[in-house]
Amino acid sequence: MIKSSRPLSRLTTPTFEMEFFSPETRPFDRNKAIHELLLGRKLANQLKAALIKSTGDDDARELVTGIFNSFSNTLSMLNSAESDEVSRFPASTHLGSPCFDGRKSEDSVESCKPSRLKSRRGCYKRRRTSQSRTIDSPALVDDGHAWRKYGQKVILKSKYSRNYFRCTHKYEQGCQAIKHVQRIDDEPPLYRTTYYGHHTCKPLLKPSEVVLDVIESESSKLLSFTNHFPTKNGGHGSFLHQHQSLSPDFLLPSELSAYDHGDVISGVASSCTTSSHSFGMDIMVEMESVKFEDDVLQFPEFS
DNA sequence: CAGATTTGACCTCA
DNA sequence: TGAGGTCAAATCTG
């Protein structure tokens, strides 16, 4: 049988890629952006210190503090693609629905529906007042997770359609994380990503491994771990904000120079803690704040 | 051919 | 009742 050609409507409908990856809005270099933000924050902090010393002007100090916090918040957004601030579905959602069984079982859905049309009745519930976390960004940010698009919808009074994504591992591992992405502005381009649920899927690498990425510049060095790693209390480590309060006792010796972009470090981050920002996300930590002992990453401030 | 995307239909809820 | 969220068949892609 000859396959029917693609309907005209599909040809005329802008694809997600066309809509989101126009030349002026192609994905940006996330690491560079993070580095620039860190640099900005550092400079704001220096300015604040200088102001305190010289003028003591409260207004100026407040302004600089605001700038500093703004940098921190943006960094936090970039790093916590998935945080535990991210929503939970209501207990009844999906898990409580008659058809939820972690699916992949397209068959299992089948099992709970006598006929195709009736089948969907009651098989899913709309999220209601579940918490969510929204990030606005000038470009699409790769949050390090594998997403699969499952829908697209024209939104009333909105120029751009909303795109719906679920975790690729939804059916294999029952991961309930989803996100909605919508372009909300033209000039400058602005994308709103709303995350619901959190990733419960396992990382791609072995739990004892993290991929190290070294971001380097004249003023500072950063380590970026592009995978999860386990913590003492069974969670996953994260280093949002905390590295601001590091003890200088742990200034990094030469060990780190032995590691380079993309290195895989075997071992366990033995002493990091989970915080309100603590799972399933990329981890950025200032180079000076970690050290290696017997190839084990040490995060002293959490010991 | 398996996995991803598209898109119309269906469903829930305000 | 209709806007928005999800499903799933059809289609595409690597």
Task: Briefly summarize what is shown.
One of its GO terms (cellular component) is nucleus. It is found in: Nucleus. Helix content is 23%, strand content 20%.
Provide key terms for this protein.
303 residues, 7 helices, 11 strands, disordered C terminus, DNA-binding
Biggest β-sheet: strands ordered side by side in the sheet: 1-5-4-3-2
Contiguous low-pLDDT stretches (5 residues minimum) are 1-28, 79-119, 204-303
> What structural class is derived from the secondary structure elements?
alpha+beta
String of helices and strands: HHHHHHEEEHEEEEEEEE
The largest sheet is: 5 strands, antiparallel
User: Beta-sheet strand percentage?
Assistant: 15-25%
Q: What does the radius of gyration come to?
A: 23 Å
Binned, the helix content reads: 10-25%
Q: How many separate helices?
A: 7
Overall body shape: elongated
Number of strands: 11
- Average pLDDT, all residues: 51
Give the end-to-end Cα distance, rounded to a whole number of Å.
Answer: 66 Å
